[in-house]
Amino acid sequence: MALALRERGNSAFLLSQFATAEAFYSQALRLTPADASLLANRAAARAGQQQWELALQDAVTATELDAGHAKGWFRRAEAASALGRHAEAVAALEQGLVAAPLNRQLLEALAAARERAAAAPAGACWFAAGGRYALRYSLSRLGGRAGAW
Fold it and tell me: Is residue 80 in a domain?
């Protein structure tokens, strides 16, 4: 049953029907909650809906269940990066490369994540603002005044 639900989720995902894919993956996870691949797939479906926090939660759980799951590490980095947490994305990709040192997708993503991390202003962090994420400098960086972009 879980396999059939996974396949239906995969079919929906390929059609960019991310909410439908998420629903099928969630149903499958009720039957096999410790399936790292299903969690990584649901993370991808949630990323397709720009539900980055939920995608990150699924990816973190996937990598905690299976530290050798390269796709889980990629999804974890993807979500962290989308949230502006570039150093966290770099760390996830480095962990993924421990599991799969020749994985081209991880290697390419690591190079891009390192560039984003280097380009991020010192003292910057991200916060939710009206359903989007905006950059905010720390108060100490601006002499006690908060600033947002």
Answer: yes
